[in-house]
Structure formats: C-alpha cells, structure tokens
Amino acid sequence: MNELDFRTPFIYFLLLVIIALLVIIKRISVEDPIIHDSKDFIEDQALSIEENKTLNKKAENIKGKIVLIIDDFGYRNDEISDGFLNLNIKITCAVIPGHAHSVSFSNKASEKGFEIIVHMPMENSGNNKGEENFVLLRNLDSVTVRKRIKNAFNQIPLAIGMNNHQGSMATSDLRIMNFVAEVLKEENKFFIDSRTTSETVAEKVMQSWGVPFAHRNVFIDNDPEEEKILSQLEYLAKIAERDGYAIGIGHVKKSTLEALKIKIPDLISEGFVFENVSEIISVNSVN
C-alpha cells in the first residue's frame, strides 16, 4: 500500500494563503485613496464654508449699489469728458449719436473698460433740434424707426443698450415704443427709461416684448449748482440703501464732475459700491 503524500495538500494550502494575502493587500490599496479623498473632500468643504462666510461678510458690508449713467457724451472731447473716465469707479457712458465725438469717445471709453449705451434722441414736448437723422418722432413709421435705431447702433457698435435723450412725447406713445421694443428685442439690447415724463409707457411695453429694462431713480444734476448735485447724490444713496440699488443719471458738466469727485470717496467709505447698469439689469431682467 502506497504511503500518503502530504506535500500536495500543503502546497495547495500555501497557495490559498498567498491568494488570501493578495486579496487583503489589494483591498487595503483600494480603500486607502478613498480615505485620503474623504479627507480632501472634508477639507474642501471646510474651505468652501469659509469662502462663503467671507463673501457673506462682504455682502453684509455693502450698504447699497449705485449705478451712475452719464448722458450726452459725444458733444465734446476735452478735460471734462475725460474727467469722468478718471473717477476710478464704474459708470455707464450714454453716447448720443450723430456728433463729432460720438465714435471716438465711445471707443476711448470702451478701451478704458467703461460700459457704453446709445443715448437715443426721442421726440420731446419742446423743440427737437439736432440729431435729425436719429431722433424718433411719433409720426415715423416702423421702417424709419428701425432704420434710425440700427444706424445709431452701427455708429456706436460697442453699445450694449439704450436710454432716451429727452423723449417725453415718444416714451409716452404706445405705437412708437412698440416699434422701439421690437428692434431692441431683435438686437438683444436693453432699455433704460430716463423717465422724462410721468406718462411713460416704456416699462409696460418692454415687459410685453421681453426686453430687459430698468428706469432712472434720480436726476443728479437738473440743478447745476454743485451743492444741489451733492444733495441729489445723498438722495440717490438713500434709495440704494433702502432698495438695494439705485440708478442716477447725470450729464457731462463740470459741476457734475466736481461734485462726483467730492462725493464718491465718501459714499465708498460709507459702504456703497458703484456698478454698471447692465449688472443691475441682469438681476432684474424680465427675460
């Protein structure tokens, strides 16, 4: 009778032990990165929480957002118009088409990082002088309105929206404002109502067409006296604090520039920030 050979079972046993060890080692190597990934994830989450706290703290420190639109660029190219570009804040430059410096100023302002909109001439209740090739009159047909708006944007191609120059009669006319809204919708532009009349229908019409829209809260320099402008800037800031933001419209005047030089540092130190009008519209857009 042959003797039992114990070597073969022993070899099988050793193989099973080796295989088991390999499986354990593999599991450890797979699980280890997961542990590290979890730690990284926890650290990332903690970092995100701290970042959010910082952002929230900054937001809490913002007293209000002020938007300044300065109208009537294009009439002049001098130390006054350039002075507005040296205020070291965001302003929206409303450039009126059809004048000697309309194109050159819009290019200069854009190169310096300023936002450009078309300051579109519209019919008012008084005499409508100048910009004859651009002014939107109530007796115009839709083809002519379209042509004039497109010509304005072609002359100032860097413009991303429009506000009205004068226009107390045009902005209160449903027919004309529907023509305007149709073109702005096609061109993907926004409209800022300067609110030169309480009878304006601009908001209602723009909303019906889905055109992004906002309106002026304060004219800062209807009275050109520096003290009056400073007072209007205070009033603008109060609205911004109350509502979160406010839109003020001024003009390319020396007294306006000097008042802004005085008041801007005070407003910033009080916690107000200056924004482009497009940033306000993006929050309040009807689209």
The Rg value, from CA coordinates, equals 32 Å
- The CATH C-level class name of the largest domain: Alpha Beta
SSE order, as H and E?
A: HEHEHEHEHEHEEHEHEH
Strand content: 15-25%
Per DSSP E runs of 2 or more residues, the count of β-strands stands at 9
User: So, CATH architecture of the largest domain?
Assistant: Alpha-Beta Barrel
CATH superfamily of the largest domain: Glycoside hydrolase/deacetylase
Structure classification? alpha/beta
Question: What is the global morphology?
Answer: elongated
Largest sheet: 9 strands, parallel
Give unreliable regions as ranges.
30-39, 52-57
N→C terminal distance: 97 Å
Q: How many distinct folded domains?
A: 2
pLDDT average, as an integer?
86
What name does CATH use for the topology of the largest domain? TIM Barrel
In DSSP terms (H or I, runs of 4 or more residues), the helix count works out at: 9
Question: Roughly how much helix do the residues carry, as a percent range?
Answer: 40-55%
Write the layout of secondary structure elements.
Blueprint: H1 7-61, E1 64-73, H2 79-84, E2 92-95, H3 102-111, E3 115-122, H4 142-155, E4 161-166, H5 174-187, E5 190-193, H6 202-209, E6 213-215, E7 218-219, H7 226-243, E8 245-251, H8 254-269, E9 272-275, H9 277-284
Parallel strand pairs: 1-2, 1-8, 1-9, 2-3, 3-4, 4-5, 5-6, 7-8
Helix pairs in contact: 4-5, 5-6, 7-8
Description of the molecule:
- The protein is α/β, with parallel strands linked by helices.
- The chain has two domains: 1-61; 64-284, TIM Barrel, CATH 3.20.20.
- The chain is built from nine helices and nine strands.
- It has helices spanning 7-61, 79-84, 102-111, 142-155, 174-187, 202-209, 226-243, 254-269, 277-284; strands at residues 64-73, 92-95, 115-122, 161-166, 190-193, 213-215, 218-219, 245-251, 272-275.
- Strands 1, 2, 3, 4, 5, 6, 7, 8 and 9 form a nine-stranded parallel sheet that branches.
- Helix 4 links the parallel strand 3 (115-122) and strand 4.
- The protein is elongated.
- 37% of the residues are buried.
